[in-house]
């Protein structure tokens, strides 16, 4: 029951959001103050952000429903059970039928399916497909019931539903053209690219049919060689995939659709530079989901990303670096990146002062891998990082440099003399221990203490 204009549900959501914000604030502070990145703490913080987003969406949906109906008590109190969605317990706006004949509100069952579920929530039966069929009979009955009880859908909601119907028809028509002539494919791909860029509802439409993404990819997947496909068609299809990946509910569906990751890898290797850049951006957005990070890494996508990074085209560098960073948050992917030559390529770019901020962050992340640390020492990483520390005015870059050096110092004694010489000539570490950020001070002081202890032990011996 609403009280002072605020329902009990809204009050509970507000309290939950406040609690999450307080916990998130503590967790972010812990992450910032910690010497190294704690993956478990970071994952918990990300989950809290997702929970906050869910609360926001739920509140928004609640407000829309209330603004669309005349009387809230009538809506929730007397509506027949058959008119309510089994998932949301709310009056259905867009009832649809799933494969086993059960009816749900489109918004809520689509979210269930996009989360990776392939069963009916009510009966737990495995669904033979995920196509959603409009339940026109129930829809008309709900509309008649609303009319009989004086409950009126707002004009804005009615017009939105009409638009969605028209969008859906046009969307299916465009997908059909992807299996037609080259000219039709090019025209349809270009329009799908534009629509999914401008209109979020078109991104969501791809999640409504299990065949939509395969139909989009058909011109690429049916060709014997990716490079034989018309360059414009390549770019438009890959960019449409990128647009789809921006939609949160699509990320898991897109990544797990067969041929998506292999085609993105083909695009990284042999597309135009725009296509390659957008393929990297797509992998970046898809890797926002932890399960996708692991799947992408196991698929071998890090190698073409590292190769494209090595080529160094300015248009692609930032997207490639972002993708590699995201994917390598998963521990196993760090070893894969090192095995694919990431350390050598990154050090080369940093030495040339190319995209230092992004690449130094990746190098700091990889430094938790022992083989990466060994390679850094062998490839002149110490001198590169020390020179960068002298030159840069960016606190974050200094932190990353000294954090990597700290790891090298404690794992490779052969680099101590180089660090001592640097300190003797420039006093780089002493200056950072005195004037750096709290994290940089701790790391620099730790290195200096280690070097001093080693000298004292030598003199004593």
Name its key features:
461 residues; mainly alpha; Herpes Virus-1; Leucine-rich Repeat Variant; 3-stranded antiparallel beta sheet; 25 helices; 71% helix; disordered N terminus
Describe the structure.
The protein is mainly α and 461 residues long. The chain folds into four domains: 68 residues; 82 residues, Zinc/RING finger domain, C3HC4 (zinc finger) (Herpes Virus-1), CATH 3.30.40.10; 135 residues, Leucine-rich Repeat Variant, CATH 1.25.10; 121 residues, Leucine-rich Repeat Variant, CATH 1.25.10. 71% of the residues lie in helices and 2% in strands. The chain has 25 helices and three strands. The chain has a three-stranded antiparallel sheet with strand order 2-1-3, with helices on both faces. The N terminus is likely disordered.
Overall number of domains: 4
- Count of DSSP E strands? 3
Task: Record the strand order, biggest sheet.
Answer: 2-1-3
Beta fraction? under 5%
Quick check: average pLDDT?
85
Multimerization state: single chain
For the record, the CATH class of the largest domain is Mainly Alpha
Architecture of the largest domain, CATH level 2?
A: Alpha Horseshoe
- State the low-pLDDT regions, or none: 1-6, 64-77, 153-163
| First-last Cα distance | 81 Å
Cα Rg: 27 Å
List SSEs in N-to-C order.
Answer: HHHEEHEHHHHHHHHHHHHHHHHHHHHH
CATH T-level topology of the largest domain: Leucine-rich Repeat Variant
Biggest pleated-sheet summary: 3 strands, antiparallel
The helical percent reads: over 70%
Please identify the structural class as seen in this structure: mainly alpha
How many separate helices?
Answer: 25
